[in-house]
Amino acid sequence: MRTAFVLGGGGLLGAAEVGMLRALLERDLVPDLVLGTSVGALNGLVVAADPTLGAVTRLRELWRDVAESNAVYADGALRQVRRAVRTGTHLHSPDALRQRLEAEYAETTFADLACEFRCVASCIERSAEHWFDAGPVVPAVLASAAVPGLLPPAEVGGEHFLDGGIVNSVPLGKAVELGATRVFVLQVGRLDRPLTVPRRPWEVARVSFEIARRHRFVRELAELPPHVEAHVLPAGGGAADDSPLSYRDAGAVASRIRTAYDLGRAYLDEQGL
Hints:
globular; 15% strand
């Protein structure tokens, strides 16, 4: 059996994936393959480097730091406006995120990781889904997490990349393509909630993106070969997580981790795992 962990994107909602990882690893459900998109690439890198409960400890420390400082999205409104006017493309600097990653993984390559890891980004020049699976891990993860409008495009190897969620937010199909026969999907909770008709201009873009994201995942889930076992772990959360400002709301990090852990344990009990 080849087991894959598929970690989807979703900004600070990705804290839920830490609780799911704890629930899985406590039961010795260990990945042979880790696939990540956006914040799922960040969480996925840590577990691929150390697919034990030690990774959960490290992630909880990292996410606690995020909750206390929210350094990645901590810019004030005036600084955001100035940066948006100056660059024309983004509100926040990637420096804090880069520094956090380089502090621990600056010399790490994909080949150095304890288990196979890949992360996805959206190539601007080729208008294509691009999977990183070799070379330094930090530039690849930064490319996967380059949220449009919030962070600038990331340059890797002479090409420019935006967030992997644009092309493959929950890469279930890629796990099957790479030979996984058991897949645990760690998603941030949006898949659990039905969409409602948008009533404000900013809701139109969110709902449109959610349709695109969910359509691909639902199709890939329906098309799974009979020999592949898939488990979509529940994340919890609610409508407040869909706010336009939820991406920078670090206040609920601890509760998201706890809720996803409790729901994950209950789900695994139901499945006899």
